[in-house]
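Go through this one:
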Amino acid sequence: MESALAAIEDSPLPNELLNPVELKEKKMPRGRRQKAAPAPKKFERQEALKNRIVSLSEELGRAGFSDLLTPLTPIKPVAPEVVDQKTTASIGHVEETLAVYLQRTSVKDNLSQRPPFDHIADPIYRRLMRDFILGAQMPEVKIAALRDLSVRIKSLDEPDINYSIIDGLQRSWCYSTTVLLALQREKLVTDRCITVEAWAYFRPFIETLGDVEAATRTLLGRTIRYEIYYNIDLEGLLHYMVTYNTAQRRMSLQVQLEIMRKPLIDEIEAAAKIKVFRDTIDIEATGKTQKPKDQFAASDIAVAAEAFITNNAQASQKEIAEDLLEKDSGYLAAGVDVGDIADVVNMLKRVAQDIHPLMLLVYADEPGKKFYFSGGGTFLTGFTAACGYVRNRNNMIMLDAALEKLITLLKQPSEDPLGLDEYQELIKNITSSRGKMLRRLVYDTFLRFFLGTTTRLEWTDAYRSLSLT
């Protein structure tokens, strides 16, 4: 009897027979409770999803859909191509399965238009993906056939063609996302690619297509219609990218200038060794929605170059972008010759490597002052226009000497060698035509200093002269 009782006491009791305290002890292991992993930040989700999209073809092959991923063959337009009289590009219409389209194009390896954003949270793109899942046709994407930006593709039968998305990066992103939703479903939540709410929204529509196999094959087998552009050069490509994308969800002026002035910005960045922040690349790559204050924006570099070359303190993003769009000569032939570029590089190199670091040091404890040059806008534009005046009236030797004067001034034992307290007090009084007046004030003050009229930056004297005009 005693052994039987001992056996009963040693045997585990069912949960329903335990008292609440014993039940709690049974269910809760001893030690520190494990914390749930924090939800991924938006840019982390976007990066995770982008990586899956970029490797989607490989993932589909591993999942057993290799029979749909047939080797690429030359594109065959469904009708004779037309020729664009402005760019001489040949433009044709193509019909292919989504499986072939996804192999031919990439959201990564194309000249960027604007960074992809959070489609699963955007109500318009959510509906677009939902409708595509249910059988709707998306508007045609526009694709460029390229090899080297300096070599035109004369025929779609040529080997080693690369395909860049001119217009339709967001739709292409949506195409791939719907396939991943059909293939991976709620696992995309576990893999931190989409939110729980996004899967809850798409789930009923995905499930109408059947199981994973059926749904994935249905989407990959859909016929996709797009336009192909070939026999174009870089200027033609930039023309299409800006005009098509501006006509829809309007590009910011910063992004327009980055695209239209890309060759110039690339050359300045490399030669002047300036860390340039690009909205078209860095916002997607870093998840930051704003440029770090100590970096130079690509669009500011473009405006600074224009202000320097033309000696125009009133150069602006809007005017430059509109002027480039109107020029028949194209973006790359807009008056920027080799000599101009070399002088721009030399000037901006001095700003980025000599003047800007001194500003960070001298005004280390004053955030409102130390980023005046990297902050771009009116200050950098007015300054570079003044530099341009010295160069155009005299030469680069005189400008280098003027910049040395400014560097010497910054090295003086003074808490405010550039008199920025005085500048900030004065600009409080400027209320009308503020941007124009600020650029002119900076231009006049630095010009007087560069030409030897003053031995320091006389902001008040320049402001009084400006007020009389």
Remarks:
- Residues 1-28, 111-115, 246-250, 328-335 have pLDDT under 50 and may be disordered.
- The first strand starts at residue 82 and ends at 83.
- Residues 252-468 form one domain.
